[in-house]
Amino acid sequence: MSNLVIEARGVGYRYEDGTQALNGIDFELRQGETVALLGPNGSGKTTFVLQLPGLLKGEGSISVCGLAVEKANLARIRAKVGIVFQDSEEQLFMPSVLEDVAFGPSNLGLPPEQAAEKAREILESVGMAAAAVKAPYHLSAGEKRRVALAGVLAMSPDILILDEPTTFLDPPAQRDLIQLLASLNQAKIIVTHDVPFARALAHRAVFFQAGRIVADSELETIVRQFRWGLNY
User: Fold this and answer.
1) Which of 35, 69, 109, 154 is the 20 to 30 A CA-CA neighbour of 75?
2) How far is CA 232 from CA 39, 83, 196, 222, 227, in A?
3) What does the mean pLDDT of the chain come to?
4) What is the DSSP letter of 34?
5) Tens-digit pLDDT profile for residues 85-98
6) Helices (H) and strands (E) in the chain — how many of each?
7) Looking at the DSSP assignment, which residues form a beta bridge with residue 77?
8) In the prediction, which pLDDT does 1 show?
9) Cβ of 60: how many Cβ atoms within 10 Å?
10) Distance (Å) of CA 83 to CA 55, 90, 159, 219
């Protein structure tokens, strides 16, 4: 049995203004694997990952955990794919941290008491249990990132996608996030310009350029080949 959790073939995407953002993307992700998506701004990395849970719809075919990314499967797919966006504040909208993390489980049908208990367990696992009653806007950038991740983990996804996860984080907060992500068993896609961060978590990297994948190899091979397009 295949251990592929994502399989993309011939994926393309054209924006309404006619810009071809993606052209012929083939990509695979295996269970438990961590892959860094590297490349310059505007190369198509974020556009690609937004297609995985069906937030954008383009050309080609994508399957997630054996499910085709199409309208009939989107609810199940979005329960399997958790995205932590570049700006964590986009995901924090409830009056308290606990309510934010419990929101997803509640939407999946858990009774309020069980959703809150699950939220407490997840907050404990990400080191944010003490912040449960705080308002999210009172948190630091690193704390917001942890709470946003907790909200995703509360849905028990099979795949984690992190879009520029080190944005707004100081070095100690980045180290904490690396330690936390390394402890998680989910397959991960990390969209980043931060080579040291990618190096700490991923063995494999994919380099995007002008809407295409131009290299898919060991991370260190990609770093040597495309030093001009990477940040250190």
Assistant:
1) 35
2) 13, 24, 7, 14, 9
3) 91
4) E
5) 888 777 788 999 99
6) 8, 10
7) none
8) 43
9) 17
10) 11, 11, 9, 22
Average pLDDT rounded to a whole number, residues 13-34: 93
Q: What is the pLDDT of residues 66-81, one digit of tens each?
A: 999 999 999 999 989 9
Write the DSSP symbol of residue 71: G
Alpha-carbon separation of residue 192 from 4, 42, 78 (angstroms):
22, 12, 22
Closest-CA residue to 84 (of 8, 184, 226, 171): 184
Hunting for tokens 């944005």 — which residue is that? 167
Beta partners for residue 160, in sequence order: 82, 188
The beta-strand segments (E) located in 39-172 are 59-64, 67-68, 81-84, 159-163
The bridge status of strand 187-191 relative to strand 159-163 is: parallel
214: helix, coil or strand? strand
Report CA dihedral (2, 5, 208, 169) to the nearest 10 degrees.
-140
**Site of tokens 């590297």:** 38
> Which residue reads 């997803």 in tokens?
104
d(CA 11, CA 37): 16
Residue type, 96: S
Q: How long, in residues, is the chain?
A: 232
Enter the tokens of residue 140. 């630091």
pTM of the model: 0.90
